[in-house]
Design a protein that fits this description.
The protein is mainly beta. Helices cover 11% and strands 46% of the residues. The strands form three sheets. It has a five-stranded mixed sheet with strand order 1-2-3-6-5, with no helix packed on it. A hairpin with a 3-residue loop joins strand 1 (41-47) and strand 2 (51-58). The N and C termini lie close together (3 Å).
Length: 222
Amino acid sequence: MRFAVLAIALVLTGCSRSNQDDVVRGTDPPARGWSNNAPTLVTKVVDRSSAQLLEVKQGELQTWVRIPAIGAKVGDYVLLGQGTAERDVDIPELGLKVPELVDIAHARAVDLETARRAAASSLPEGAISVATVFTELDQRDGQEIVVYGTVTRVAGAVGWHWVHLSDASGSAATRDYDLTVQTKEGAVKGVRVAYKGRLRKDADLGFGYHYDALLEEATFVE
């Protein structure tokens, strides 16, 4: 399943809406369902006549999105569909230029329980989190696995795309939140994806490139 744009994953605290509000606030879900990796918390709001700009956060990852005007407020959780990233976008209302803003056609404000359910239902079958990869690295070394996460960085070298995945299931302190994927199929930063490939522990590629864990020759999971 190619997921969209955010994916920023961690159970977060904050204000939430009631179940009754959940069914009326927002657009219809996209045909392939919501693409949230986990609860998405609204941290800033800019209201416009027919749209809202939201700063949203999941764990350590944060970005701006543009959605239809659904009355989202700071402290809400939102479900988001797929979107397209724009670079270096001015937000004159705040006197800001943000490095990235994702334009999303489908959104809904929900309570935390609904956000958690939506995240769980959107995972591909058998997929594991980035933190699980590192926790079970010894057992899974050499195995073919499916892993999901949000693209945080993409580089091209020696005929491959090197995609960094994070789902905020781990942390920088424990070094279990960032997984490098070697793939012929590139990805866009901020997009939620799942890859299938062979996991390799302590991958030393030479020239100073060493990875505690590397997903080799991976392909997208639809």
